[in-house]
Amino acid sequence: MFSQDHTRLGGISQEGTLRTVRALEEAGLTSPFEREALNHVAERYAIAVTSHIADLIDPQDINDPIARQFVPSAGELAIAPDELTDPIGDETHSPVKGIVHRYPDRVLLKALHACPVYCRFCFRREQVGPGGAVLSEDELDMAIAYIRSNPAIWEVILTGGDPLMLSPRRLGRILDALDAIPHVATLRIHSRVPIAEPARIGPALLAVLARRKPLWIAIHANHPRELTDAARAACRRLTQTGATLLGQTVLLRGVNDDPTTLETLFRAMVMERIKPYYLHHPDLAPGTAHFRLPIARGQAIMRALRGRLSGLAQPTYVLDIPGGAGKVPIGPNMVEAGGVRDSADQLHSYGQLSD
Questions:
Q1: Which CATH class is domain 91-340?
Q2: Where in the chain is the domain with CATH 3.20.20.70?
Q3: Is a pLDDT exceeding 70 seen at residue 216?
Q4: Fewer CB within 10 Å: C terminus or N terminus of the chain?
Q5: Active centre residues (catalytic)
Q6: What is the pTM of this model?
């Protein structure tokens, strides 16, 4: 569980982020009737809603998809028996602090556990928060040394927490150290910042993101309304560094669990040079059952999108197997799907499928 220092941050931080139940209530995003339950939620899980995100929320809509992602709810107090504090097995595959090494050719480097916003479905919700750990200089040196000593590591993925919350100076030092390792061929950063706090994507940050080695930036967005004019402009600034942008989305009940919403989101991403990369099935994080839906429902949505979207706008639907086994594609079997039965018959006739 994260440090509870966030309860003393005074509600609204200098940058206008709502961090307490009282601040959310004063902003009209929660009601006094919810106060007691939400205070219990806040005792366990961090709250942060940037002013940029708060402005997107329609307080008159009890089913607002932006509010559902970022405003806490009493449903988070219900812990299902199959939910896990470490649902994807980070701790099992952490040889040194800050490193997760699940796949032979790539590692995660978690330099901090703070984010601009705290998604209510986050699979690391037990670790992240305003008091979340930041690697010390010695710990960071040990993490870099681990990468340097393992020549099979081809890619380093900076995650956390949100790496773009680091100061440009500190982020630049990390990237420079990784750039200097010959067997590290490519770098990746996963971030909510361009969507949740686009003003952070400024000149100092952009300067350190300009790399000789390929840099990929995975931008997390779940609903088309998140791609505001400011967010789109921030993404365009990122592309000017030479980075390639990827899109990460979580399939969430009541947020984007219909083909039309996802079609609009993925088209908008492609228009901003963001390649939809993964559509994640929700993880078994504590208190998130109200976001999860059957895999069959996700497969039906992906099947519907197949005939409506260019391949450029098609992500891979994946499940991160609990316990650390890794991601597996769980999209529909399009050959056997009823809608392409004729194609299956043709493949049989050409000997491409066996009975």
A1: alpha beta
A2: 91-340
A3: yes
A4: C
A5: 102-103, 106, 115, 119, 122, 124, 283, 320, 327
A6: 0.89
